[in-house]
Amino acid sequence: MTVTIHYKGQIATEVGSSTEDLKFDEPIYLIGILKALSDKGTEAINDFIFDEKGQPTRSLLVLVNDEQVIDFQKTLISDDCVISLLPPIAGG
Amino acid sequence: MCHLTVATHRWRLVFKMLTEVDKLRYSWQLDVPGFGEREQLTLKNSTALVTRVGGIGGPVAQSLAAAGIGKLILAHAGKLREDDLNRQILMSRDQIGESRVKCAAGTLKRFNSDTQIEVFDENVNNVNIDRISSEADIIFGCAPLFEERFLLNEAAVKGNKPLIDCAMYSMEGQVIPIVPGTTPCLKCIYPDDPEHWQRKFPVFGAVSSLVAQIGVIEGIKILCQFDDPSLGEMIRFDASLMNVKKIRLLPRRENCPACN
Ligand SMILES: [Zn+2]
């Protein structure tokens, strides 16, 4: 199955792209996708997603199909889902 | 100008009525369905705090003045620099080296001399926040640092007044209308201090202006109880793709240190 990731804000700058398609063999929980992104990304990407205890950072907004979700362990991602990662921004 | 002495929705003893000049000046917006003299009167008797008056805060202040806000409180420290001028539209090149907030106030005063303007040549901090924010009916958060935005959030919650958090990065922008007790506050949305945020960020003036205009529209809706403000939502746009979305935010955090 294919999951589309939309990177926003400073994460997009760090990744060097605003979107990416990831392939998985079967539906996967959101936390698994975040770990996959962290594993394949830079240390900076990991720091945007996980804190020093390995927990998802609470100020990163994660959207699935444009709806904010908070329970990454229980949110099952299926084919064609779009996941957006919105780090906090404060440009004025 | 006609004055009535009444208790208004917030503290003021002198209630200003609409003059014939007001009715002429604002006649085009008074034709907007749902926005009439009652709403214009509310604007005229309202005070907005705008921090700061840069790429977002400058056009926020200008559009509030254009709409007929009664009073603007502007807070922004420092002197104008050459590299401010791609976005800080209330200032001009011949003013480099002068106080940013005073330049902004001068432009606004020439633009709408009926809008009262109070300036603070300082950035909001935990010492001056009460002094700067106490009179405001609504706060527009346009600062480049989260420390300042969180202080504005605390002031909004403490004073039970709306906060319009306006932010941008590169080609993206977002507006979060916050009404204490009703919507999540900024600390509900960002409970941890965003360590990655940096003071310098990529910015086109047109993008920061776009954020500002969305913020002003939402602020006027809330102040005047007009139309349908996006409460509990984040309005987010990506100017690269030219898409605008409203994102439904999670409810207030039960253990939020700021609003619970
Ligand atoms: Zn809160």
Q: What's the structural domain tally of chain A? A: 1
Order of helices and strands of chain B: EEHHHEHEHEHEHEEHHEE
In percent terms, what proportion of residues of chain A is strand?
A: 25-35%
Number of helices of chain A: 3
CATH architecture of chain A: Roll
**Total helical segments of chain B:** 9
Q: Given the C-alpha coordinates, what overall shape of chain A results?
A: globular
Number of strands of chain B: 10
Unreliable runs of chain B: 1-8
Helicity of chain A, as a percent range: 25-40%
Provide the CATH topology of chain B. Answer: Rossmann fold
Strand order of the largest sheet of chain B: 5-4-3-6-7-8-9-10
Biggest pleated-sheet summary of chain A:
5 strands, mixed
What ranges of chain A have pLDDT less than 50 throughout 5 or more consecutive residues?
A: none
Strand content of chain B: 15-25%
- The H/E string of chain A reads EHEEHHEEEE
The CATH class designation of chain B is Alpha Beta
What does the overall shape of chain B look like? Answer: globular
Care to describe what's here?
The complex is a heterodimer of chains A (92) and B (260). Chain A is 27% helix and 29% strand. Chain A is of the alpha+beta class and 92 residues long. Chain A has one domain (2-86): Ubiquitin-like (UB roll) (Roll), CATH 3.10.20. Chain A has a 5-stranded mixed β-sheet. A two-stranded antiparallel sheet of chain A has the order 3-6. In chain A, a hairpin with a 2-residue loop joins β4 (61-64) and β5 (67-69). The longest helix of chain A is centred in the middle third of the chain and has 11 residues, at 30-40. Chain A is globular. The model of chain A has no long low-confidence stretch (mean pLDDT 94). With 260 residues, chain B is of the alpha/beta class. Chain B has one domain (34-248): Rossmann fold, CATH 3.40.50. Helix content of chain B is 32%, strand content 20%. Chain B is built from 9 helices and 10 strands. In chain B, α4 packs across α9. Chain B is globular and about 50 Å long. Chain B starts with a strand and ends in a 12-residue tail after the last strand. The chains are: A alpha+beta (92), B alpha/beta (260). The complex binds zinc ion. Residues 184-185, 187-188, 252-253, 256, 258-259 of chain B line the site of zinc ion.
